[in-house]
Fold this protein.
Amino acid sequence: MGSVLSRPERTVDYVPETVTRSVKLLVAGNFGVGKTTFVSSVSEIRPLRTEETITEASVGIDDMAGLPGKQQTTVAMDFGRITLNPQLALYLFGTPGQQRFVPLWEELARGALGALVLVDTRRIEKADEVLSVLEEREVPYAVAVNQFDGAQTYPLAEIRDALDLTPDTPLTALDARHRGTCLQSLITLVEFLFRRVEARQ
Ligand SMILES: Nc1nc2c(ncn2[C@@H]2O[C@H](COP(=O)(O)OP(=O)(O)O)[C@@H](O)[C@H]2O)c(=O)[nH]1
Ligand SMILES: [Mg+2]
């Protein structure tokens, strides 16, 4: 998988002809956790996104506590694609984090094989809502800690406890700005999902 680890030139907009399998995945997590950053880091097509500059109007609606650097908010979703190996394309759908967009999840979750849930240890309790939405819709997920600069680091075992994850739920750490770590987390998720599919067959 060495080739995907280097950032590709974003010139290939068509799915390579070698691709025989495509998988839809959600990139979920609360507002400001790094979903848009993650999709931009890994996507080999120019990510389609619908970001709005946060205006006065969203003050009090979007919870910006602890997010001094955040100036854009995703009003609908992020979309990206990555060919993980020549045969396998992943389609990534970043879900909008804010509570008012939960109805949109019904559409997004349809046909999704699974989800990668990003969490920020500074606001870890915010992940609970996202995890419950996925559990209600029976979307299997892996969790990835987006390690922000200056945020305290915790052992993954502690995070697993705090989130009350089952022992088989994959848990990794990444930096949403760094393609390599994002890819590792995606690979872990995909391996987990394929194992589940195989176990069912
Ligand atoms: N230091 C640091 N900043 C990040 C990281 N991931 C995202 N950010 C910043 O955090 C803010 C929120 O990220 P964004 O991707 O918009 O979050 P989203 O609401 O989940 O889509 C942005 O200003 C990003 O540049 C990270 O891993 N480290
Ligand atoms: Mg976003």
